[in-house]
Structures
1.
Amino acid sequence: MAGGTHRFLRRWGVDEPDDTQAALAARYLRHRRVLYLVMFLLVPGAATRLDLPTPEGAPRYLAAVVLALLLAEAVAALWKPRGPRVASLTPRRWQDLVPRWAVALLSVLAVVTSALVVMGLLMQPWADRLDLRARGFTPEFAHEIARPPGVLLLVGVAVGLAAVLAVVWLALRRGAVGDPATDAALRTRSARVAVGLGMVWMAWLLTRAFGRLSALRAAGHHEAPGWLVVVAGADLAGLAGLLVAVLGWIWVTNVSGRVPYVRSVG
């Protein structure tokens, strides 16, 4: 375990961490592992109990895992670390913790997802006028069309952004505790992991928004507006966005010791 925390700290930019620094990192990781487990148990059960419209199979579990991890990071960020307070002589900016490209990608995914969701909601009155049973669609499909997930998706965007911003803000603003280099590494890790998880969460919501527009296009068939046919026909862009988000998550958290802010503090 000690060797693992030493490697963890070296990965996040702490050169030759000692046992005291490793103990701080071990406590940090232990808190998060407990919260990960709790959220893994709570999130899927809450979705089922609330009867939320979620896809079946692997995508459902992907969403549950990502949301559980993101919420766990947000809750963990609220815990005040114990230990002696130390003054930081290096001013912190959010750019020190998270690269600009990561925040830009997260923002683009959130904006595009929200725009597609609003498009779907605006089309709902048109969809409600369609007689899907007479067109030969199954009752399950008719029920899906009659139950738009748009509001829930917008709530998902808001919750995801709020969780990410909370983690980054707390990582930026809370006082330094214990060893300055270790503290800088842990706050950097928290911010980057939260932004990476936020990317994947937004991209998953993006695929759901595209899926809704595709379902509306199928329901309307030849009566679907031209813009809906074009936008829904680009649903592969949702999968591309998910792939980009996963790669972004990997890249933003795969620092391998290249953390200038941590090195400047240490």
2.
Amino acid sequence: MRRTGPGVTVLVVCALLALPGCAGGDAGAVTTGTANKAAAPPAPTAPPTPAAAKSALAGLVVVPNGYAADARELSGPFTLQSFLGTLSGVPAEDRALLLNASFKEGYQAVRVSPDREKQYTIRLFRTGSKRKAQDLRAGFRSQDNFTGKYGVPGVPDVRTGRRVGPNGVPDEAEAVAQAAFVTGNLLAQITVRQTGPIAGNLQPDTTLATALAQQQYKRLTTKPSS
């Protein structure tokens, strides 16, 4: 058998073991380059926050022509908490009334006359049922001290009230006319307030309250055409 020479043996061993000092071996050598990593994809951006949904009740309110929005009062949708915090004069009582009515949503629109002496307010309350809307109306009415009532032709089962009295401003009085009716699970409450000198012959504007109650009832009970 033919033997390999010593030089051949050394080369074979170096090739197999890659010992330090052997030609071609990289064991113990410092690596100067790193593998290129794939660029990380950009972090996904959060989807835009959707705008708050507009209340379905907004398109149902009726306001008088020529009256401007009253910046002193809230106009727009309200929840149970926002009603109690900003609109209610007796939050504890109103909280019980609204919870008992299974209140779902509400909307208020406030308008003021050009001379800023007459204010018109429409409030819509969506409740759990027609009966609960009627109970809510009765609860709200028990909080007012009306001294008279008036008729609203064409609006069934309407509750009205009128009164004249001081409004907390020296030498000034307030006249109020209100109409409230129920259709389905909705309670509509219309209020017309006006101010004037105590010595004057101030009277509630039942004519405006009647006309707007009739228009509001028609709006709520007219089915959209297909």
3.
Amino acid sequence: MAWTVQIGGKVDSTELRRPEYLQAQLREDEQPEIRIHRRLVLEPIGIPLQTFGSIQELLSILIDIVDVHESLVNQCDILHRDLSIQNTMCYNFDYESSTWPTLSENTDICTCLAERGEVLKKCKYHQGFLIDFNYAKFMDETPTISEGERMGTIPFMALDILHVFGSETGANVTHPPKHDLESIIYILLWICVLYSGPNSNPLAAHTMCLKPWAECKSLPQVEALWSTKTGELMTHVPLQHFSSYFGGLRPFTQRLYAAILNNHQGAITLTHDSLREILLDAFFQVEELSAVPAKHKGELLASTVKQAYC
């Protein structure tokens, strides 16, 4: 994989960095040799999100994804626009020589993040990051979605994006950061329904309640999926199909559903801090216990809720 490096929206090249020098070395009839800055990925640098080793590590990786997304938006003016389980990865972080920045300005969240940092150093959890910026845009371009335009991976699309993608009304909708954050919630739901625990193979989505999510192949099906997922904001159907291992996450995913519902109704309640806060609450409150029989095959770990730390 290769990509061209940009600086301030312009291709990074010798022409950009040293225009006077290039011209000074040439005769009048010569054209300068312009070299473009490109980067190559020659070997894997991460592993799939699904390789998490515990509920706490999974939540920690998702918190990292929120941090990465916020950094892209606020520091780089870049909106990813395609958060999915395929595009969220993790890697071995060097806790001895590196530090992980705290982006939130909320004092309580910063305190929890500091406490989480101590857990990470002890447990050596993987860190999360994003890949695949094919749909990404600079924020100053005011990203919009038009009727029938695909933007993202269908099972993880925000409701507003799904509606426009499958719509025949000709309406447009902007794609603000909250839509990417909504996708992170769907990633968590996907894992909780289809995976029985760490190092497990996923169940076939078409055999589970997520069948409408996974089998969209036409615009009418996309519109039907929008209707299904809108109804799930009230019924919380996916929560009823969580594997036993993820049972302790139900109260927190109910809060996440409430945030999506408020967003869908026009309130801006799904922010980096609000999503980070719920994930942090789950990070400190969900405890893994001894193995018990579960709905899925095999012996699985159950989860319960203990006293909150933040």
4.
Amino acid sequence: MPVDFIKPQSSRYAKILLDFSYFEKRLIFDEYVSSNEEGRSLDEDFFAQFTNYLNQFSRMLDALFSLLHDYMEYAERSFVNFNLLDRRYVKLNSLKCKTLFLLGVVLLLIEAKFPGLIKERIFVAIYRTNMNFATRKFELLVSILRNRKENFESCFQHIQINETYVEQMINFLRYYATQQPDSTETDGFTNEKLMSMIYVCLFFKSDILHNQFSIMRQIVDKYFQSDYIIPIHLELTVNLMLKWEPYKAASSTLQTEIKAKRTSMFNSSMSTPPISSQELFNAVVKVSHFEHKLKQSCLYIIAHKAEDATRLKSRICNIFDQIVLLINSQMLQDCSWN
């Protein structure tokens, strides 16, 4: 990523690297780059230097909008099975959950790679080269790319994926979490995968995080009794205590669980004999070994992140292909679709 978009104050293009404040003073800015010799020269040099990069980012935004638009249409048309215990649809529902989860991961990766005002500056530069954005596309992209005081995940609800569809996916994850990791019905969902999936999916229906205390109590009891640092992706890890802080039901439920666990640990420690020096030494050796392995893993991940991105794209395509095959299968031919 060009450093000019990261630190515009140190760039020679600082005067024309604007965030979304551009839309509030557009006439003044456009006059500067069209009527002022300095502004015109800066503008020409800027686009001569960054046009290729902006075109690449623009293609990514086009692909993102197409993905979101197609997924919203699919969710609207999707067959809704209210009987979550109907085993005929477990495979289909698991694929739907995966696609919703991966959609959220794509958005989180964009935020991780282009945090804060960086996205705004790049989008404004792209917008100035092509102002013929359809209204829906413009509004959706601005909602996703806008820098916000609240968590980035709060933009998920503005994507407006069918609420019934999202609620069904969350309920599916709630009630099928007890499947064994080798179960073919959940397509190999491990508990760690289920944790990350329900964490992401909940943001598409944030009312649960805000107000549904009983549902959050069940989710925390089932998934997050002991794990508060959740791996979402190879390069994404979240702290529930920080991410859920703005959400009343989620935060309150998690804090209650943490307090209960601390009390239990304190009571347990009072009855535990002191650790010996040899045991302490062995523990330090294990921690050192773990840190060494962790560093090796991190270096490997960084070296292969491009390959991982390609695999993620392939997974999304494969999952949609499987959904299409399931929809066309004999099992679903007699079903009615909304």
